[in-house]
User: Which sequence fits this backbone?
DNA sequence: GTCTATATCTCGATAGAC
DNA sequence: GTCTATCGAGATATAGAC
């Protein structure tokens, strides 16, 4: 849909039929809004402009649809993160690039954060499958290795890589998901304007850069 | 229940009848586990050791019960944060005390984070009501004022107080809520042991302290 | 205040025509 | 592949006795 969209540019998306794409987009919106349990098959069908029975024709069940959506979405987001890492050399540049890519990916698809959080409320069975060392998505482990490398090379002070990656990812996710609450502290935040996006990236970059430097 | 529990020590809790307390605790657990839609009134009744009809006697509907639980819980958590601020003088000590209080509050009631997130997925009507300037809960605005004061007094470098508070609260919330995912990166995290709690607090304290100091 | 029994409704899933 | 019609499980909510 959007040019440069993390999701619709992904190879595993472009090969879908039009109906499958419509279902997929509708399901993402609905699952992100209402969660695994709160989502309604009827709403997804309406939004996709098809019949409810068709959902069961393409995906056996609601569970099947949920898993398909979640796996595709998490994979493409994590791929965008690792791609950003590969495009830069110095630590500060990489830090900014990953922040930029990850925040913009989430802002362009705010439903994804909701999907992942709801998944965690249910024990994250699908997300855990996606993170398995062999055959899973490599984004988080790649980020951990990135921090480990920066510590080893003396670019940043010694820091627990797992804790930092949790803080890093969380600072972006929470900004998107908590927006309804935060915007009552500062209404401009909810505009999603380029100015607000840059302000968030600048804040996180300087906080983390100073927080990590040797 | 637990001595020192943020919730059960709160004045608005201790004046409830035994049945109301039982309902309240059961509802908190169930709503946190399954979300606003996934929660089952039958499960809440069973856990509270009462009949399903009693839930509708004390709280008119499922929605009413949900709102009552959420408002009470968010208030008491935010009160624990401001109390921690008042107990210390220097910025580093306050930073550690608030981190400690807020993380332990969430770990003692992991359902609360899930409740707040589900609330945001629905546009956060209750949370926004709680944050209104007059008559609402003062925790977040109190934290913002704390950061503003520290900047003004030269204890920390100039930083956007709202963005920092978002990052601060989010780094704690995401740790609790994302545990099912993160524990597949490092299984020990899920133990919730004192060692793991301290490691998280130490990480965040040093990251934020170095990230903010003049 | 507390319970049993039940009304009412919503939703996922399927059958079967086209 | 796509639709209409419907089944049946399971949930909220209430009626009414005690």
Assistant:
């Amino acid at each position: 849909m959007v040019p440069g969209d993390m999701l619709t540019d992904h190879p595993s998306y472009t090969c879908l039929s039009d109906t499958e794409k419509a279902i997929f987009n509708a399901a993402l919106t609905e699952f992100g809004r209402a969660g695994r349990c709160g989502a309604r098959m009827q709403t997804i069908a309406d939004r996709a402009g098809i019949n409810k029975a068709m959902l069961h024709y393409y995906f056996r069940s609601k569970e099947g649809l949920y898993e398909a959506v979640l796996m595709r979405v998490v994979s493409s987001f994590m791929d965008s993160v690792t791609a950003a890492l590969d495009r830069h050399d110095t630590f500060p540049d990489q830090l900014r690039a990953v922040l930029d890519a990850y925040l913009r990916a989430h802002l362009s698809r705010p439903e994804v954060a909701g999907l992942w959080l709801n998944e965690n409320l249910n024990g994250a069975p699908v997300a855990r499958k996606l993170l398995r060392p062999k055959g899973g998505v490599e984004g988080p482990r790649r980020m951990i290795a990135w921090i480990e490398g920066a510590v080893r090379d003396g670019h940043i002070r010694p820091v627990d890589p797992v804790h930092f990656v949790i803080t890093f990812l969380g600072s972006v996710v929470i900004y998107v998901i908590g927006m309804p609450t935060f915007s009552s502290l500062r209404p401009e935040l909810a505009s999603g304007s380029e100015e607000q996006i840059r302000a968030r990236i600048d804040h996180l970059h300087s906080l983390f850069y100073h927080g990590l430097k040797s």
Observations:
- Residues 62-86 of chain A form the longest helix (25 residues).
- Chain A has one domain: 11-212.
- Chain A has twelve helices and no strands.
